[in-house]
Specification:
Blueprint lengths: L2 H16 L3 H28 L3 H27 L10 H11 L3 H27 L4 H24 L2
Length: about 160
């Protein structure tokens, strides 16, 4: 009699190490959608206001890639009962305010600096999530190549 509950408890404990808990999945999805909203808005801003063709092209790429990533995240969120949101990440709202005061090469430098910092964080978070199992981990795995491309592009643009 004792064996069955103990076995079930061990299965839950061991299984939980490889699979995120529902609350963690929900939090990750909400942040992913907010992050996509943020990157779309900031990317659009760079596409319109960037001084260099490289920054304008990067802004368009960010907008388009994050639009697709957002669609995928919203589909997964819907299956898991996580609501859609149009919110942005608080730090991205602050960055948008900062960028609105800049123009020319100063805009480009600040935009690329922020994108490199933000995408370093995003890549790390998505790598952690990608080690799990289930639809949220699969979403993270599918999104990682674009996030890495965005980081690499920001670093290349920062070197001139």
């Amino acid at each position: 009699m004792l064996y069955r509950p103990l076995g079930a408890a061990l299965a839950v404990i061991l299984g939980g190490a490889a699979q995120a808990q529902p609350g963690q999945d929900r939090h990750f999805l909400m942040d992913a959608i907010r992050g996509d909203n943020s990157e779309m808005m900031l990317g659009q801003m760079a596409a319109e206001r960037g001084a260099s063709a490289g920054v304008r092209d990067y802004g368009r790429m960010l907008h388009d890639d994050h639009l697709h990533a957002r669609d995928a995240a919203v589909r997964v969120a819907g299956r898991l009962g996580v609501p859609d949101t149009s919110e942005m990440m608080p730090e991205a709202r602050q960055e948008a305010q900062k960028l609105r005061r800049l123009s020319g090469p100063a805009f480009d430098r600040e935009f690329v600096r922020y994108m490199a910092k933000d995408h370093r964080k995003d890549v790390a978070e998505f790598r952690r999530e990608a080690h799990g199992r289930g639809p949220v981990a699969e979403l993270a795995q599918a999104t990682l190549p674009d996030l890495q491309k965005h980081l690499d592009t920001a670093l290349r643009l920062s070197r001139g």
